[in-house]
Amino acid sequence: MLEIKNLVVQIEDKRILNGLDLTVNDGEVAAIMGPNGSGKSTLSYVIAGKADYEVLDGEVLLDGENILEMAPDERAAAGLFLAFQYPLEIPGVATMTFLKAALNAQRKARGEEELSTPDFMRRVYGAAEQLEIDRDMLKRALNVGFSGGEKKRMEILQMALLQPRFCVLDETDSGLDIDALRIVSEGVNALRAENRSFLVITHYQRLLNHIVPDTVHVMSQGRVVKSGGKELALELEASGYAEYRATEAA
């Protein structure tokens, strides 16, 4: 379970989150929607531990433990995963080397044995096949020269290997065509489980047609201002964010 209590955050003296409260239960897929500038991506960065964001108040509790007191790698070891809107290219770092290092670093932090090379290869190839990732992609430098869809599939591959407790997807649908959206969504849906939760940040209903949420929350002015079931996303698709932009302008 993730519990966010009265989270207040600023960057460069600009207040972004203003007392945000949110709870995502075990096994739940929660969607965050809202107009540009409402603080959606900031929320994902703060949860993951990105530098430069100043937390003025509040807590972010993962299974009762305040992750704001942890370094980013400690949060990852505790079971947190962030899929970026714009995954970085890392020239000179082989994809397989990166995947093995990340997986074994987490296993070591949790007191588990590192995977042997054959076991690691079996896991990677099995997950890659499900995500329609060609093995030639795995031989290249991480994300270098990848299309937008390939980068997003690589993010989901990492998530499948790491098996996190809580997954944050920051506008995963950004830049995806229909086929890539289907493949990425199927990869996410295959990971849904009673002990794993998701926070899906998106502008559009189309992603939620594939990853059907249990709850939908609307952000405005750095707070959650409305919550409901999956039908709320359909209402937003029909009416847009006009009333929430009006709230921000008031």
Give an account of the 3D structure.
The model has no long low-confidence stretch (mean pLDDT about 90). The chain is an alpha/beta fold. The protein has a domain at about 1-90 and about 165-250: Rossmann fold (3-Layer(aba) Sandwich), CATH 3.40.50. It is built from ten helices and twelve strands. It is globular, with a radius of gyration of 18 Å. The chain has a six-stranded mixed β-sheet, with helices on both faces. The protein starts with a strand and ends with a helix. Belongs to the ABC transporter superfamily. Ycf16 family. Keywords: ATP-binding, Nucleotide-binding.
Please describe the structure with a list of short key phrases separated by commas or semicolons.
four-stranded antiparallel β-sheet, Rossmann fold, alpha/beta, six-stranded mixed β-sheet, 10 helices, P-loop_NTPase, 250 residues
Concise description?
This protein is an alpha/beta fold and 250 residues long.
Topology:
Layout: E1 2-11, E2 14-24, E3 29-33, H1 40-48, E4 54-62, E5 65-66, H2 72-77, E6 80-83, E7 90-94, H3 95-109, H4 117-130, H5 135-138, E8 141-142, H6 148-162, E9 166-170, H7 178-190, E10 197-201, H8 205-210, E11 215-220, E12 223-228, H9 231-239, H10 242-249
Parallel strand pairs: 3-10, 3-11, 6-9, 9-10
Antiparallel strand pairs: 1-2, 1-4, 4-5, 7-8, 11-12
Helix pairs in contact: 4-6, 6-7
Protein name: ATP-dependent transporter SufC
Pfam families: ABC_tran
Family: Belongs to the ABC transporter superfamily. Ycf16 family.
